Amino acid sequence: MTEKLLRYFRTRQKEAETEKLYDTQCPFCSMQCKMQLIEQSTVTRKKYQTVGKDNPTSEGRLCIKGLNAHQHAVHTDRIKHPLRKINGEFHPISWDEAYALISEKFAAIQTKHGKNALSVYGSATITNEEAYLLGKFARVGLETKYIDYNGRLCMSAAASAAAQTFGVDRGFTNTISEIPHTRCIVLAGTNIAECQPTIMPYFERAKENGAFIIAIDPRETSTTKMADLHLKVKPGMDSALANGLLKVIVDENLIDESFIEERVNGFDEVKEHIATLDLNEIAEQTGVPVEQIIKAGTVFGREDSGMIFTARGVEQQTDGSISVRNFLNILLATGKIGKKNSGFGAVTGQGNGQGAREHGQKADQLPGYRSIENEEHRKYIADVWGIKEKDLPRKGVSAFETIQKIDEGEIKGMFLMCSNPVVSNPSAEFVKKALEKLDFFVVVDMFISETARLADLILPTTSYLETPGTMTNVEGRVTLREASFPVQGEAKHDWQIICEVAQVLGKEKYFSFSSPEEVFNELRIASKGGKADYSGITYDRIREKEGILWPCPDEDHPGTERLFEKEFAHDDGKASMVVVPNTPEIPKDTPTVDFPLYLTTGRVMAHYLTGVQTRKSSTLAAHDFESYMEIHPSTAEKYHIQDNTLVKIESERGSIVVRSKWSETIRKDTVFVPFHWADSQNVNRLVSKKLDPTCKMPGFKVSAVKLSPVAN
Ligand SMILES: Nc1nc2c(c(=O)[nH]1)N[C@H]1C(S)=C(S)[C@@H](COP(=O)(O)OP(=O)(O)OC[C@H]3O[C@@H](n4cnc5c(=O)[nH]c(N)nc54)[C@H](O)[C@@H]3O)O[C@H]1N2
Ligand SMILES: Nc1nc2c(c(=O)[nH]1)N[C@H]1C(S)=C(S)[C@@H](COP(=O)(O)OP(=O)(O)OC[C@H]3O[C@@H](n4cnc5c(=O)[nH]c(N)nc54)[C@H](O)[C@@H]3O)O[C@H]1N2
Ligand code: SF4
Ligand SMILES: [Mo]
Q1: I need a surface site. Which of 72, 278, 477, 605 has the fewest CB within 10 A?
Q2: Hey, where are the domains in the chain?
Q3: CATH architecture of structural domain 83-153+352-515
Q4: If one looks up domain 597-709 in CATH, what number appears?
Q5: Predicted confidence band of residue 682 (pLDDT cuts 50, 70, 90)
């Protein structure tokens, strides 16, 4: 063998053995499963595999999305350069050119129309550091009051309900490890089996230990299959159903009188209201038989521990926040909160759905859950940021209202990071038209999403493999995502992009960070003394302890595993019950002669949100490559819809065409369509603009629709 050939074989052999490991956390749901990417390089190609890593929350498990997450991250469609739209087409430009363009356009807009003509739209998929920076960027960098984020469409109802009832909002009041030991579990409008799959063993262990599980959902799902009792509620009627349960509990005297006496305000008013309600009427309104309401209420009331979990089925309603409050009424009346194995869980959605709502992306909030309208809070944050309190903008408006203000011409420019509102917001066609009116639109994404298509400038960002930072998971546990995969092309981290844009706008002195850890250390100070206090959490501590649950007010504090053991977070230490009407203040869509069916929307296991990422993964796309409509066969026959055929679904707002899927397991008055697909399959074309008056959540879960078969 020649020397040359030998060298060739040696190199090949060496390369064949090259294996690199990269630790990270899943980019998708709130479980934030810890994982490791294994990269095996051969001469010709790289091979990737994702495996789970042990940690206190997901215990090393991964679901199908996590196992295949790397497929989108290493996809060739990733944007690698800033892209500027010229005559309707995107052209790569340099970062310097991109920043110069932003500086010129933003200045022009603000000179002509005022500071508040610019807006920021953020996300709960970015890290705590980035969420914190984005809030600061809007207020200090752009000096605008208009910032909000996609979590408004996700966690806002649960967040406002918990804040009003308990005085603070952390998704789970207890750690996940208590779930197996509780005696009765209510799963209201949550499909954990498909949406947080790695949480399931906790519930399965509870079942093995004899817990009674009650599921509330208009459809049978992999989650309801686990339940001992499934209340197949009419879409949108959860408030009334919770009133029914509460009535049974009060009438059967299953309340905890001493707990109520010591720790709760407002019980008497609720009791009085409940006395005026009729169970038969509630059964009629909710579609749930009286016997089932009685069974659920008595079991929950009688057992000595219990937990209630809510998710978007209950929350994404125009009465979502008060509806959640009614489930919290049940916990308070039975004294099942602030105790071991008893508590509440609003099952967080996005990976950083918890942390991203605590540090200032919300229109009315400052870091640490401080209020932007509270003088003391304003002063504190202004001092941390080194600005004058009077220069700190006041509160802005919610995500969807921001889009309405663009439509009305009040907002002219937008800086959007990590969201796809053209697909995810209600009345999608309206949203698209509104965003098209922007004078200048910057989108920061990894891909050219449906929303990015409308941008004037797209800035390429890094993925969960590449960006380190902290994420606060479903439990309220602050975790450190150690990501170190090489950055592709010229992409930059979201936190870097925010700092660099601020710099070109002349605000470098407020954004001179050189690592996520530096940002986190400022966030710690900004949150200190706030309700979501992170000040005792450091990178070293969470590296070592695998996460810390907030509040954590000093470096010797172990974190808070269980909330409200001694008192609630309101000034008087008490929780607050509220009277909830059976029928909501703002009428929801109800079936009419023209639009005779309920439409509800949600998720499937293999896809994530608007599908930009999961549709890029060959394995996940193969699971469900198109949208569909779940319909009961007897309803389908009534409207001449064959199984597995195209059907047009229309509401007052618009129409879509998807494939039918017959299923005996859905209510006969309801059809279901997932929202992971865009354009003519985008179910949000059908959803109304109405918002919950308290938290501004859209009513994604109830629309009235009609169906017609599409001729071949
Ligand atoms: N596979 C997957 N997992 C995800 C996501 C994803 O897109 N895909 N997204 C993540 C995010 S951001 C979120 S917010 C969570 C969402 O997690 P979930 O809230 O669990 O998901 P959804 O499917 O939106 O809704 C849950 C259930 O509510 C039911 N429902 C519909 N209308 C009603 C109603 O009126 N009342 C009641 N009681 N139930 C109703 C639906 O039938 C559905 O089974 O999941 C997270 N995990
Ligand atoms: N009909 C209906 N509509 C709904 C819902 C429903 O149940 N029914 N659910 C609502 C809920 S709960 C949610 S959370 C929203 C979510 O709605 P969106 O906010 O629109 O969610 P995504 O599809 O995750 O959009 C994220 C975008 O950011 C990009 N991206 C991913 N990671 C990063 C990153 O690290 N940095 C940056 N800069 N970009 C990144 C992705 O490529 C993608 O284009 O949808 C809501 N809309
Ligand atoms: S999607 Fe959620 S449950 Fe699945 S691996 Fe990712 S974080 Fe874990
Ligand atoms: Mo969400």
Answers
A1: 278
A2: 3-73, 83-153+352-515, 156-347, 597-709
A3: 3-Layer(aba) Sandwich (3.40)
A4: 2.40.40.20
A5: very high
pLDDT tens sequence across 566-616: 999 999 999 999 999 999 988 999 999 999 999 999 999 999 999 999 999
CATH 2.20.25.90 for domain 3-73: yes
Q: What is the DSSP string of 465-534?
A: TT--EEEE-TTSEEEEE---PPPPTT-B-HHHHHHHHHHHTT-GGG----SHHHHHHHHHHHHTTSSS--
Q: Which pLDDT does position 389 carry in this prediction?
A: 98
Q: What's the pLDDT at 70?
A: 98
Query: 6-20, 490-504, 524-538: which range is least confident on average?
Result: 6-20
- Other Cβ atoms less than 10 A from the Cβ of 7: the count is 11
Residue 628 CA to ligand 4 centre (angstroms): 20
Ligand 3: residues with CB < 6 A are 26, 28-29, 31-33, 58, 62-63, 65-66, 196-198
Ligand 1 centroid–CA 197 distance in Å is: 12
pLDDT band at 233 (very low <50, low <70, confident <90, very high): very high
Q: Which ligand 3 atom is the nearest neighbour of the CA of 58?
A: 8
More confident residue, 338 or 6: 338
- Please indicate whether residue 675, judged by its CB atom, sits closer than 6 Å to ligand 2: yes
With a 6 A CB cut-off, is 420 part of the ligand 2 pocket? Answer: yes
Bridge partner residues of 89 (DSSP): 86
The reply to whether ligand 2 has any atom less than 6 angstroms from the CB of 681 is no
Domain topology for 156-347: Dimethylsulfoxide Reductase; domain 2 (3.40.228)
Helix (H, G, I), strand (E, B) or coil at 429: helix
Q: Are 477 and 57 in contact, with CB atoms under 8 Å apart?
A: yes
Burial label for 89, CB within 10 Å (0-12, 13-18, 19+), is: exposed
Question: Does the CB atom of residue 316 touch ligand 2 within 6 A?
Answer: yes
CA-closest residue to ligand 2 atom 45: 424
Rounded to the nearest angstrom, the distance between the alpha carbon of 51 and the centre of ligand 3 is: 12
Q: What is the distance, to the nearest Å, from the Cα of residue 697 to the centroid of all Cα atoms in its chain? A: 12
Q: How far, in Å, CA of 288 to CA of 283, rounded?
A: 5
Residue 12 in this model has a pLDDT that exceeds 80: no
